[in-house]
Amino acid sequence: MEYLLVFTMLSLSLLLIQKSLNSRKKGKCEKCSLILIMTLVPFISFSQETEKPFIKEHKLHKHRIDFVNSTVFQQVDRYGSVYNTSHIFLTMDFTETDEIFINASVSFGNGLKKKLNREGYSISPTADDLEDDLKNINGTGRKYLMEFFYQKKIQNLVLIGGLIDAAAFVDANRYANDEHTQFLNDVFVNNPIASIPSYNPGFYIKYGFYQNISVSGVFIQNKPDNGDVGIAEIEYETESLSVRPYYFYVFDGHEHKGFGISSDYAFSDRFGVFFRGGISNVDYDYLLSGGFETKKLITDDKIGVGVGFIKGKAETENIYVCECYYTVNLNKHLYISGDLQYIKEKREEVVLGGRVYFSY
User: Fold this and answer.
1) For residue 30, is pLDDT > 50?
2) For residue 118, how many other CB atoms are within 10 A of its CB?
3) Taking all residues of the chain, what is their mean pLDDT, rounded to a whole number?
4) Among 129, 139, 122, 118, residue whose Cα is nearest residue 165
5) Is residue 124 located within the same domain as residue 238?
6) Between 160 and which of 190, 195, 200, 204 could a Cys-Cys bridge form, CB atoms 3.0 to 4.6 Å apart?
């Protein structure tokens, strides 16, 4: 009877998702999404194989619904902008080894992305998915539903298939991988010169050889660009050290490939450093970025500093980025941050920002 109930609820959920994705009438998609969330609530828990810090923290929660909200203000010259983005995470566990994960998001505002893009900047001062991104995800017409996939664990093997975010599994980093609680700039969240698509159909496989070593692979559609992307990664991880080299290849009729590496080292639970690098045969030659995160002894306030350099080719400019943030931990659910960025591409810009982050 239990499995029959799970199957019935899953079938209903899949039907609602399909209805939501196919809907084009105003308000219809949002209503279907609300019904879907209410349908899934009784089965929610967290053990998803993500590497994104702001999602990983919810593995420790026992809430039926996990929710995060981030409000960010950024100003460049005399122009300022505010955006707000919210995520709801849902996981249905059918057995100890079978589950479905859903990540839905709604944003208001587009920050400085459009303004700096019009002025010729290739790197955004925020890596978050904003209003225009979520109203037409990757040009597919899909709204708000970012990830929806099935996960199966078989001893040391993890299999995932569905709508996935490749950046949730590869190029991870303990100190530079989360635009909600760490750095905001694209350069310090993932490798911007690598092809690591998000929120497209694909599958992920990971196998742990030994206690500290695993290999993984991702195959995912490359929308809104052409082709598909394959990524292979080796991960070595201990309590203090993590090293993740990977190779990516774009199958789209012309050769686009490259290597990347993401690594971090924790000297203690209060101080750690990170490094990220990569090479590519398209648009840019290589990326180098690194920095540190430290916590104050008494208050647990965090300070992060990162510097990045992207070497351009003949038709692209070199890019220089520096960012520092100071985060005050008001309580276990609420954080506020001050953020300062320096960006140089065709010209120099200083971006002043602030962030309020709520998690439950």
Assistant:
1) no
2) 8
3) 85
4) 129
5) yes
6) 204
Q: Is 154 in the same domain as 139?
A: yes
- Chain segment 2-19, per-residue pLDDT in tens: 333 333 334 434 443 444
d(CA 230, CA 271): 34
Q: Is 58 helix (H, G, I), strand (E, B) or coil?
A: helix
What are the structure tokens assigned to 124, written together?
């955004």
* Cβ contact 292:275 at 8 Å: no
CA distance 266 to 270: 8
Pairing of strands 348-359, 334-344: antiparallel
Average pLDDT (329-338) is 91
CA-CA-CA-CA torsion sign (115, 121, 127, 132): positive
Q: What percent of the chain has pLDDT over 70?
A: 82
The domain total for the chain is: 2
* Cβ pair 218, 250 in contact under 8 A: no
Q: Which two tokens stand for residue 273?
A: 């450093």
- Whole domain around residue 55: which residue ranges? 44-359
Residues 35, 178 within the same domain: no
Tell me, yes or no, whether 38 and 186 share the same domain.
no
Check whether residue 232 and residue 97 sit in a common domain: yes
CA distance 145 to 90: 12
Q: Which candidate, 349, 355, 352, places its Cα nearest to that of 336?
A: 355
Q: Which two tokens stand for residue 272?
A: 């750690």
Do 32 and 152 have their domain in common?
no
What's the CATH number where 58 sits?
2.40.160.10
Q: How confident is the model at residue 61 (pLDDT cuts 50, 70, 90)?
A: low
Say whether both 160 and 15 belong to one domain. Answer: no
Residues 60 and 11 in one domain: no
Q: Are 139 and 224 in contact (CB under 8 A)?
A: yes
